[in-house]
Batch of 4 targets.
Target 1
Amino acid sequence: MRNMMPKSALVLALLAASVTSTLAAGSEEEFKAAYAAADAANKEAGKLRNQWTTTANTLAAAKKAADAGEFDKATASAKEAEALAKASIFQATSEKTRWKDMEIR
Amino acid sequence: MKLRSAIYLASATLALAALTLASALPSGAADKVDPVADAKAFQKFFTDKFPKVKFEDFVNGPYSMNEDLYRQWQEKEQFPPYEFALDMGKEMFAKPFKNGKTYADCFANGGIGVRQNYPYFDEKEGKVITLELALNRCREANGEQPYSYVRDEMAALTAYMAFTSRGKLMDIKIPNDPRALEAYEKGKEYFYTRRGQLNFSCATCHVQSPGERIRAEILAPAIGIVNAMPIYRSEWSGMGTTSRRFTTCNSQIRAVPLSPQDDEYRNVEYYLSYVSNGLPISGPGARP
């Protein structure tokens, strides 16, 4: 029993942490932060002339979900959009030299 | 002792300098922009890859890659689907602007049989001028509103101008101007650069895979691809300009298209046209 207590406490603590993080993921604030990060990354891709249509679509889906009050879904979409934008930045950067590998010589 | 150190230091510096020079030289040589060598290698790549295709047939895109399609196309040419656009373009070309002038006043030889010289590098402006751009500039210079680069009016005008140039060999010049070489090189870079979520470059389809199917379509070879522009596409149920082709290619690979006639598109058209020098103008074309 004495050994059970710390374990229960640990389980409870983990549960609480998970509930807290779920609540946080669903918050409007977290969505706004995730959206801002995604938007900034997409703008960076724009400066490199290499935005992806999927990033724009996913950002639009995030906004639509947020407008409907579904912040869990909105945050997830915003994070996905950020990942897509970052991938497009990586692509544009690496292609600065990699394009030559494909050139007919 | 000091002298020995100085000798070591000098030797090390010399060795380092030699190494730097040696490593810089080959890359410098490899990076030298040589359009003549590029065009030769480009044309050889396709003639080696498709030894049965006659050189001048590359301008017929997917039809040159597939015998069945070739026969279908020849039948289609009896009543070509671009004919309406051609008639419309001819009428538009002849119709005077409000100031009484016509397109003929803006172009060499009255705009007849000049398609093979576009795009060209304008040394005054330091940029590539495409036929579509020249047409809109002509309109604006004569007090008219420019046309959309992706709509029917532009396609009709360029169709007529291409038609009057059929059979003439593409003849793109790169003047002795570092800016022209830079535009050419940037066009080449655009052509080979992967973009979009699908990670495709223009070359992925039109160099690596011509003759292969992508869904229901047979991919055209890059060589001579611009000689057939503008094109009637059954997929679009209408005509498409070069600008429309570039922007839709980008969308299809999930890249956000640039604006028509942005520098990138002008440069890539310059590059693609230059490496197709010597091939006849065949536009307007018809594609599946």
Target 2
Amino acid sequence: MRIAILSDIHANLEALRACLEAAAPLGVDRWVCLGDVVGYGADPEACVEAVARLAGDGAVVLKGNHDAAVEAGGGGMTDAAAAAIAWTAGVLSPAAREFLAGRPAAAREGEILYVHDSADHPGRWTYILGPDEAADCLAATDAFLTVAGHTHVPAHFSTVSGLAGTTGKVTSFRPLAGKPLPLARIRRHVAVMGSVGQPRDGDPRAAFGLLDLEAGEITWHRVPYDIDAAAEKIRRAGLPARLAARLHEGR
Amino acid sequence: MAGPLAAGTVIDGFTLEQRIALGGMGAIWRVRHPRHAGPLAMKIPIVGGGLDVATVVAYETEEMILRRLAGPHVPRFVAAGDLRNQPYILMELVEGDVLAEVARRAPLPPEEVALIGARVAAALDDLHRQRVVHHDLKPANVILAARGAVLLDFGIARHADLPDLVAEETDEPVGSAATIAPEQILGERGNPASDLFALGCILYLLATGEPPFGEPVSDVGQRRRLYRAPKPPRALAPRTPRWLQEVILRCLEVNPADRHPSAAQLLFDLNNPEQVPLTARAERTAREESLAARLAGWIAGRRAPKPSARPAPGGAAVVLVAVDLSRGADDLAEEIRAEVARILARAPDARLACLAVLKLRLVGETDRRDRSGRTDYVARLVALKDWARPLDLPETAVSFHVIESIDVAGAILDYAVLNRVDHLVMGARGASAIRRHLGSVSAAVVAEAPCTVTVVRRKRGG
């Protein structure tokens, strides 16, 4: 069973298409989308449509804070993010808004928990940026593997579980693109996927994850995409210029 | 599973036949399985009370890394046990001499020390190229097999692509007392130079019969190597040649930056004793007393490294340039030199080996060949050094080799393989009818070279 994970698409259709095309030949049995389909980017309607098609084929699709803000408003967000949400709410079709509004904050499938932010109070929009937040996430669930997004920065955390004398230390690791990471059974893991549509780890390529249950491995893939086109659309839509420029920087 | 392990015990279908080694992280048993032809080796914790976390993490680490390693210098990974119930690593049973047994005969003749050192250095080069630092190299973890040195025990190794579970689980330095590198004692992991230090300890032991720092039990005893230099090998074993002392003491430098830049460059020295540039290390007759003073800056300048700091294995390159100076330093030779300069500018730690092949004639010239061959040899060496002079390389970064062969391409290829060359640079003369029929040296080299090849050709006007 191979599960492809898309997170934080942020209305970047060029990046989403590149990820879908790159993932398909890897033998994907299931798709999971961890939320934030919209916000920042200029193609919210097309991205929601694409994700809704995946959901129609059985994909898990969660709600992120930007998806929630389409209905609730961009209060508490940065000016650029709030401006993008106001614009997005204006261009989304009622069907797309309904689809986003109906998404859950988390989904548990057996020993795997999918969540946009953290197992620690999903919907509070906590960022898992380091071992401390990862420890809170691990403490809030008994899942063997928690797959999260929200930070736009790929990361892996784990702690030894069920062994006498365990220190409870949480390991933290910055995964390398395309290098499978083993998910040892003596540990519990938190895998924070990067962002499809707005990477912030300094690598501007689109990110998606591939979880291979038989091999017990997870891989962070990176895919080049037409950044110029996505950025140009953002500028033409009249969205804050910074949202276009940061795509080139991956920041 | 309950009870002590004994011959006849069956684990996951594997029957334990004979215990062949005992180490800190468990025992190695020869095992058999009805579905596997021939015996295999199973590394398994010595059963006592509950398994401690450090042991389980070591098995987790070894499984993770051994699965990803390939080639002749590691045992082939077969399977691993469930870490929650019965950790074990099942691997190929490697036939050969354990270096720890060989080391009982130490001091060994210098030629044998160099030969063993070269085999282990070749294994380390292969390991480092696969982005792994061993961190526990010692005689008990090396098997001298027919196919080369085989390294065992990756329980505290570090793979650059994977989380460093060992460092994450403990704040204590991890390694073996006799061979642990100074930076490893200070908590740094993932530096390939740490394995070169350990190999230096092994060479010292083989050459003198004594470990350079003893086998200190206490932390304080282990830290002593940070400020107290070992006695030079020649003080203990006077027949150790200067060049070998130079190589060993360079491996044992406290600051990793002062060691060989890569296992391949150490291998190069061990393969080419006459090319080892001798420094004050070679002449030392007593312990270096000023070590602490020399290193004060290095130690003070160190910050506690982050456990997940990304190591950069692989290391510095060996660049081989083959120049045909049979017609003197012509335009092509100059072109080649310019290209070499560009390559070296991109690889500051690289070492350059300059090679000229004297082509031997096959028939009827035995006498003349012997007489004039010698002078040819010296003349070519002089020409080669003169050719390289404008590159202005320090003595430690360049070496010169003139070899005689009937088969020029074969000689260049053999040299590149033996010395683990990373990048080969050579020239190609313009096309001619004869060349098209017989094939050129450069074409033969390009076809079979084990590394990147740059072929330099004079641009033709037209």
Target 3
Amino acid sequence: MSSANDAVAWFREVGIADRPTVGGKGGSLGELTQAGIAVPPGFVVTTHGFELFLEALEAREPVRARVEALDPKDLGAVTKLSEELRARVLEEPMPAAVEQAITAAYRELSPNGEPVAVRSSATTEDAEDASFAGLQDTFLWVLSAEDMVHRVRECWGSLYSTESMTYRLKHDFPESGVAMGVVLQRMVDAKCAGVMFTRSPTTGDKSVITVEGAWGLGSAVVSGEVTPDKWVIGKITGEISSREISDKHARQVPAEGGGIQEVENEADIRKAPCLTDEELMGLREVGRRIERHYGKPQDIEWAVDRQGQILLLQSRPETVWSAKDAATPVKKPEGNALNHVMTIFGGKR
Amino acid sequence: MADEQKSFPLPSSVAVTPGTEEAQAAYPYYAQFVPEDDERFWFYNSMHFPEPMHHFDMITAEAAYCALGSFNTRVHVLPTTKGIDHRIINGRVFIGGVPVTDPAEIEARAGEFQQRAFYYYKNWERLYDQWKDKMKALIADAQALPTPTLPDLEPIETTHTGKGVAANHALIDTYRKQLEGYFRMWHHHFEFLLLGYGAYLTFFDFCKRAFPEISDQAISRMVAGMEAEIFKPDEEVKRLARRAVELGVDSHFHDAMEIEEVLGALDQLGENGREWLSELETSRNPWFNVNVGDGFYHYHRSWNDDLSMPFAALPGYIDKVKKGENIERPMDRLIEEREQLVSDYRELLDSDEDRATYDQLIGLAHRVFPYVEGHKFYCEHWYTNLFFNKIREFGALLRDHGFWEAEEDVFHLTHYELESAIVDLMLAWSSGSDPLGPKRWPAIVAQRKAAIETWAGETVPPALGAVPDVIDDPAIVMLWGITRENLDTWLSDGEENENELKGFAACSGVVEGTARVVKSVKEIGRLEEGDILVCQVTNPTWAPIFQKISAAVSDIGGSMSHMAIVAREYGLPAVVGTGSATQKIKDGQRIRVDGGRGVVTILDEERVLEDA
């Protein structure tokens, strides 16, 4: 049974195998932390925490049974229940032990009110797809315990969005298995940030690393609000084979009082590369380490802080090309190795 | 497809430049374009013959294509291609492949190929050892040929030994032996070459398919040899620098030195000076038999002919030795790096099957590569130097008999004409009358000199004739790197950025600096620390000055050229095969070299007024 002691798990205590209780994002950050990769510290509010909260809700008035009783085609009813349940998740009291556990962990993570990010961390693989709508909540630059708890509730509440409930009903997912982790992580006041694929998104080539980045927080790159600079780096050789420096008109920065805001970039940095070659080599090194750790190409979010340190914010397996890998070998081995030369000489290329 | 079809001019539409008709007609009849050639595709062999051909130097094209074709067509029996035809117009060599297109013929040839070429692959090391012995014997034969001379009277020994052959006979004998040796050398050259490139390219092809974005450099670094002959000349210069310090004679070497004076001073210096001079002799034979071009022209002289290249490098190396820097090649580290590279790429492959194929292919590439890298020293450098220097001796002898003014004028005659001049001299010596050559040749030499000067200023079309749909000739793809895509680029030439030159990415790194356009080895003294070298042909013999420069750009060369290999060794950003860097870049301009992308950008748009 869930106990409030298990409501919180630090990154250093969990790994990818803990996905059922900490979600994919939390498990991955734990895995990276354990592997010695520089990840901003943080913890996960586990599914145990959520379940204790849900038990408290159920004790007052049913939740799961009412969702299961819905007709997914009756959008009016789904919307009405969604509004009701989300309000309950946001407003009804949380078991004191759970709230204390979360708040205590937060105080440890952010003793002086350092900013944190709050993100949902889904427990099932397909929930990481965009198709499982409404489960991708991210709240940046959260500055107080009250706000933090509110954001955790918002993440939980997203389980009862109309999209999320409709999806579960259509796919016959039992409500008893519905749970979610919430990741709390110290935020980096990034000089620049972005994403990195440890293979080519255009050809699938595993021997290159593609880096995209822009000034400020990575949210601008992930959301596509700014055209990032783009580099292609030889994974093994470190050659930088392509540099596309874009005109980065704006960046996202922390807003006063919490959250983020967009500001115009000054003229002198708009067309300047946001990463130095040394930083690119640092990213390549980290990318290779993570890929080696998981044994497959990764899709990584990174940031460089004001001191120039590279920090990893997220890593997940690359999915588009991986599906095509190993389907056909490049070239089958030959009984006689010499037969290979016939590709050049025999016109059989 | 809807685009307007662009094409290259037909051979018949290329006019011989007025005033050079006779010089053009003097090239062998079998190298002149004929009307039927309009049906075929020809491309300008600017890689091997970037400059107008002296009439004698055409022997290199002739001997090389005689040998290349023989091995492709009739010895190894390549299934899809035969040899290379060559033509010359306005001093420029155009070549065309002879592909095999009939499927039945390809199949029959493939059967032959597997018997013959596979035998070479299976016995590669033994046959290559045997090859080196053959080449060394051929070199020894050439070295043993006498200097052509004609005494006033035969030495008395001719009488006493009953020799029965007079001195003039030695002229034709030596000349024909030397020509025979040159033709033979080119056969040896092609005995392994295509097979070696083919095995390498098989690996290259696999890497490009497994890793679509892998750079050519990364692939060549995986196969590059460590002990290859091409590194030896530079290693010898380093050794001489170290010895100069050890012997305490290093103060004689500085940037402004006169080589002859230094050699004289060392000889006067006593034991240590003479000791260094004897070390120099050890290095010279054979390692300074490298020439400063690629050995295809008589004027690509060797280090032994002109010590300015190795001597230019000595002060820099001496400085480093005195500072306690290690200038030797870190062999263990290089080997370790190569092995790491091979295993890192292997790890990225998806399946055991691919890894098994990769192992087979890299194994084969490593076996053949010593030849691919090593043969040039014996063929294009050592033998070719001996050959052209022997012809020079004939040039001097004929000059002494009034045939022309300068020894070098001999290279304005075809090898047939030179034989006729030699026979002319033999007859005259024999009859005791005057040769007729002195009345004939000076005008011809002057005319051909003028023709070459005219031709040198001309723009040459990159190709002639019909554009083929595909270029599937492995020899052309391998040796010249010409593909259908290249042709499209050539056809669209002039539509691109004028300040940008594209070439092969030889060694990555981005550097901005001052361009130093160096047209010959005589000018290397102009290179200052940090300059970017811009030259026509780069070659391993330029390696010693790589310590001084910040990047290198050349007109000619592929990513597998020796220059590229050495640049990678030095970690020197380099772009090779730009086609026209020495013409488009002005001395003193600021340029940016991006060796990873193979792009050179001219940063100063204004002309630099050097001597204004």
Target 4
Amino acid sequence: MWDNRCKIAVSGVGFSQATRSAETPLAAHALQAVKAAVEDSGLAMPDIDGLATYPELPATGHTTVDGISIVSVNCMMAMLKLPNLTWHIQTGSVNIGGAVQQATNALLAGVCKYAVVWRAMHNPRGTYQNLPGAQATGPLQFTAPYGFGGPGQFHAVAYARWLERHNQQREKMATLTVTQRKHGLKNPHSYFKVPLTREEYLNSRMIAHPLCLYDCDIPVQGAVAIVLTTAERARDLKPRPAYLAGYGQRLVFEVAGRIPSLSNYMDAGRSSAQLTWQRSGFTPKDVDVAQIYDGFASSVIYGLESYGFCKEGEALDFIQGGRIELDGDLPLNTFGGSLSTGRIHGLWHIIEGVLQASGRAGERQVKDVNVSFVGASAPIVEGTTFIFVKEPY
Amino acid sequence: MSDWSKVTRPIPVPNELSKPFWDAAKQGVLALQRCQSCGHFQQPPYPTCVNCMSIDLKFEPVAGKGAIYAYTIMYHTGDKRFAPAVPYASIIVELDAAPGALLVGNLLEAPYTEAKVGRRVEVVFQPLNDDITLPQFRLARAGGAS
């Protein structure tokens, strides 16, 4: 087990409003979320001495403007002018989960006391994923000329292979999307406010077969944030903390330009999960509630299978029969997932893992939660995994 | 069948790593980067062998027969250049002679519904302009080898 098991905790969490279009600059959303997280902790802004984020906009073919389409650490520093700042970082290789892990490491190293991690996501005008213009350079020269690289396609190829190799049916995914939306209706921060029916799912238009409209999270403009600190300090703060029992990250490498979704998701997800199980001392059977990244619904399959919740090829059967309901054996994406909150990446999943562990999930609180699991990105892309617990035992 | 006649494709720009691939394609030859130490083929080309870390890499011709490893049918019309071909199949092909090296293509000369994992395909060459010819795929012809 990890020497630092349960030595770091998440305290406050914060949200901005999530809007479909970018009426206000993204920096304002990020600031709103960060302020809310600090306030939720019962701290004042001068207490914050650590900052971390993963700023990238995952859209393609759009210009990057700091404060408008991303919110870098530099931008946040300029806005907050923290008088006691001692540490900051931007991560690249493992998405926002990597920023949370770096903040954890900085707190363990004693180089800061209260770290804020935020994720701000812009929704650019027009098509989200664009092929390049007249010329295809770099890795795109082998994909874009074929009209490959537009919305959903990179994830769709892996899903098609999974379905056909395992003789599975995409219609079974309706259970996941309908159940998540039901959970989302109990989340005041959900973007969608109306139920999704099985019929609506099955009749929805195709984006990139086998991914239909409701398999894709909706791009929004919004931000979320958390405050991390040591377990000792967290106990003196306002909310009940969630203790970090262990974390892991994807260890399988990717070659630039190779079709990422086609690498072995089982190896990638397993590598991150194994670290997490080993460090925390838990197994999948110990998990009371799980958040598994669902930017595309198919990513939940790879998470459930590679993290060890079910066997390879069985995820779409595993989620049936009420198992992922709030009172089921494995309540899943209890905040509604990205499919309900909109595309703000895995910090939302981490926040829900925290809220469930600390008993602060309100109307959607799962009963008797001790062990709360989070897969914060698609295991085949930039996967990280976490376990939060209610008591540091 | 997808209508490709009105589609304007982005033109590949060869670089230091990829130039031999496009030079060969222009001659109607499919050539992939191969490690001279361990024999591993890789696509896209990379500065080192991703299998054994050797830097002794050369492009070698490979037979253009293989199977569909994965595919997607594109319905989204966000890119107006490709909208006339929607719905169209983008396929990922694993060649018999170069396992692990995955090539992207469209499934030409067949309805998009023919795209299925494991379906046999063979390379065809589609000139885009005087400099660039695109390797593409069609269903393997009956009677052909394997």
